[in-house]
């Protein structure tokens, strides 16, 4: 009960953020109380840090890269190109915006997609003078695709990094499993969004209202450097995994290179357009504290019996066949993530899978199902993921208010079918892949 009470109070403070209290300070406060009450031990800090450090610093580096590219106009340029390629056809623009969101989520993480693409899409919608129902369709699509398209690469979501590191899954192996599954997830998301919002999508819009994509570019040097740098970064992820080099190190080097270009370090800062110091100030450093603090609180919950209980459920699911085991694990993870946030839920699921006595093939399916459940499942509730909380915060700043009731109504319509189809794709693809 002590462990559960500490977790609930900590989670409330993380979501509520009274008087602007950072999520990191709330999580660290919860961890400190857990230590005082003996829910976790000092030795657990090293265990948890070993699980989360790579994911945490990779995430920070990716957000720094994303913020610099955003200030340089990279994402605005891409969005304007997509809007022009829509050629004035609203029903073509809608899937193109979803696909753009999927690419940004894949390469810049779900939080980057929610944080950076949303205000750009809103600005374009205002320029095109879309009606409120039409604008809402595009906004919902942008918010949901950020999470549902965050499966393909280890770096696409914090959940992916934590899981891959915990179970020692290489970047290449992870991509081989999840890229096809992610394609199914994106298609399923688009299909469900289309069924729900097709009647609100305008048939036509005026391309003449849009600015030329080139006008969005604020820093041409950073913009030109983005394409080769991102290509090299992706290649580096694949080539360095056999060397045992941490993903955070590779991503950190890319972030430093981009910071040097943006800050014109070789010129002593002369001619810099993007303020690197401002980007660093706005980087999510609170996530570092949140990761160690919240995971310690959840680790204490596991010590108190949650892991053992989860393992019992997974053992039962494992006896029902691979299809039921996969779907059951995915939906169980999704429900837990929706209640406690997907970051701590990922650790709970990983610990439970590690303790479960199931065949190796079933265990591997459960590992990836846990990732899918924690990537897609948080869309059931607003508190399910930090990306959703960021997205709602951005919307509120733009005077688009979506209540928790409205959000959950939408989430309960869209998420279950997408989650189910994606888990079925995993069941079909992973055994087939393993035959090669």
- Run of helices and strands: HHHHHHHHHHHHHHHHH
Backbone structural class: mainly alpha
**Main sheet properties:** none
Low-confidence spans: pLDDT under 50, at least 5 residues?
none
Protein name: Arsenite efflux membrane protein ArsB
Subcellular location: Cell membrane
Transmembrane segments: 32-52, 59-80, 92-123, 135-154, 174-197, 221-239, 245-266, 287-309, 321-340, 410-432
Membrane topology: Multi-pass membrane protein
Short characterization:
The chain has 17 helices and no strands. The protein has 436 residues and is mostly helical. It comes from Psychrobacter fozii.
What does this structure look like?
It is a single chain. This protein is an all-alpha fold. Helix content is 77%, strand content 0%. It has 17 helices and no strands. The model has no long low-confidence stretch (mean pLDDT 86).
């Amino acid at each position: 009960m002590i462990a559960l009470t500490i977790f609930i109070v900590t989670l409330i403070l993380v979501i509520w953020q009274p008087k602007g209290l950072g999520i990191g300070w709330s999580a660290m406060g919860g961890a400190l109380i857990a230590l005082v009450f003996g829910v976790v031990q000092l030795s657990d800090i090293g265990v948890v840090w070993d699980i989360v450090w790579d994911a945490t610093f990779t995430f920070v580096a990716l957000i720094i890269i994303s913020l610099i590219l955003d200030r340089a106009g990279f994402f605005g340029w891409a969005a304007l190109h997509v809007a022009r390629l829509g050629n004035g056809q609203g029903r073509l623009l809608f899937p193109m915006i979803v696909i753009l969101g999927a690419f940004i989520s894949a390469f810049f993480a779900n939080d980057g997609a929610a944080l950076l693409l949303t205000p750009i899409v809103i600005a374009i919608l205002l320029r095109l003078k879309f009606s409120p129902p039409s604008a809402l369709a595009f906004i919902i699509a942008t918010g949901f695709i950020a999470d549902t398209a965050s499966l393909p690469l280890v770096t696409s979501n914090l959940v992916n990094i934590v899981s891959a590191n915990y179970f020692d899954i290489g970047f290449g192996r992870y991509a081989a499993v999840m890229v096809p599954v992610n394609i199914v997830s994106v298609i399923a998301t688009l299909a469900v969004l289309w069924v729900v919002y097709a009647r609100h999508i305008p048939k036509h819009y005026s391309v003449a209202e849009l600015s030329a994509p080139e006008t969005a570019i604020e820093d041409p040097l950073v913009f030109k450097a983005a394409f080769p740098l991102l290509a090299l970064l992706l290649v580096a992820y694949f080539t360095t995994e056999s060397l045992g080099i941490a993903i955070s190190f590779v991503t950190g080097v890319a972030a430093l290179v981009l910071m040097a270009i943006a800050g014109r370090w070789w010129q002593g800062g002369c001619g810099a357009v993007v303020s690197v110091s401002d980007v660093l100030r706005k980087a999510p450093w609170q996530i570092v504290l949140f990761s160690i603090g919240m995971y310690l609180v959840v680790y204490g919950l596991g010590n108190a019996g949650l892991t053992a209980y989860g393992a019992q459920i997974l053992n039962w699911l494992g006896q029902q066949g691979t299809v039921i085991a996969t779907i059951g694990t995915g939906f169980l993870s999704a429900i837990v993530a929706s209640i406690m946030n997907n970051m701590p839920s990922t650790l709970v699921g990983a610990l439970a899978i590690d303790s479960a006595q199931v065949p190796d093939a079933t265990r591997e399916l459960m590992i990836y199902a846990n990732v899918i459940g924690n990537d897609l499942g948080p869309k059931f509730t607003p508190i399910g993921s930090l990306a959703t909380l960021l997205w709602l915060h951005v919307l509120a700043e733009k005077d688009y208010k979506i209540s928790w009731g409205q959000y959950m109504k939408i989430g309960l319509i869209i998420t279950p079918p997408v989650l189910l189809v994606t888990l079925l794709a995993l069941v079909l693809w992973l055994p087939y892949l393993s035959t090669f």
